[in-house]
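Changelog-adjacent note: as of this version, every example in the card shows the full chain rather than a window. The one below runs 164 residues end to end.
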Amino acid sequence: MATRAERLYRKDFYAWTRDQAAALRRLADERWNGPLDLLHLAQEVEDLGSEQRWAVESQLERIIEHLLKLEHSPSHEPRRQWMISVVDARGEIARRMTATIRREVAPALADCYGRARRKAELALLDHGEADAARALPDACPYALDDLLADEWWPSNRHGLSDVV
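Full-length structure tokens:
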């Protein structure tokens, strides 16, 4: 029969890293006299989980950037490449997302949006689409569930249609 820690490890790696780091710190506080460097081990285990969360946030930024371009760009190209990038990023998130990461990423969506918006703005300006760059909203227009949904795409402001 699996222990609580084993079940958590399989179900929510991010939460497991937090739980294990806390346990290692408690042992250090109790002045456990073993050969392990508990405080540094705790930090390393915690960092493993943080890398998963940061990867999810990075992929969310990529999704937002390309969805903004798909929604606001009047150009036909490179729409398909933006869509491929979104599909790829959604897959990367699906491999890493846990309930705990989702709870922590949801409030960080505004920060992800700010970074993604800036990249989308610069890319649109590079392609001579200043009007589209100026039209980007200041606040994230997308819900987290939409960003993660495999078949969800925003409508293009210029009536372009993508066959998905």
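Structural remarks: The first helix runs from residue 4 to 11.
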